[in-house]
Amino acid sequence: MVKENKAQIALKKVRQYLLVGRGKPTPKDPEPKVYRMRLFTPNSVVAKSRFWSFMRKQKKIKHSNGELIAIHEVLFRY
Question: Is the pLDDT reported for residue 25 higher than 90?
Fold first, then answer.
């Protein structure tokens, strides 16, 4: 049996997600800018929450006025 160090154990608990989202289309802005973000979180629910938290702080787009286009888990290869 191989012993694992703390860094390897920590990597197993965190997953990498690539999220793509934008603001909802409006008559004023029919094609809003698309934003992509790479996040390290334990699961997809936390990734979505963190995405909207950052969007709210950085780009002033709330979850109610935005839409999530895609969420992909980036798999690590050892």
Answer: yes
Cα-based torsion angle of the residue sequence 17, 20, 24, 26 in order, rounded to the nearest 10 degrees? 170
Per-residue pLDDT for 6 more than 70?
no
For residue 2, is pLDDT > 80?
no
Structure tokens at 41: 């979180």
Q: Which residue has the tokens 């997809």?
A: 44
- Domain 10-74 matching CATH 3.90.350.10: the answer reads no
- Tokens matching residue 9: 């154990």
Locate the domains of the chain by residue range: 10-74
Contact criterion met (CB below 8 Å) for 74 and 17: yes
Task: State the alpha helices, DSSP H only, in the chain.
Answer: 6-13, 44-58
What pTM was computed for the model? 0.79
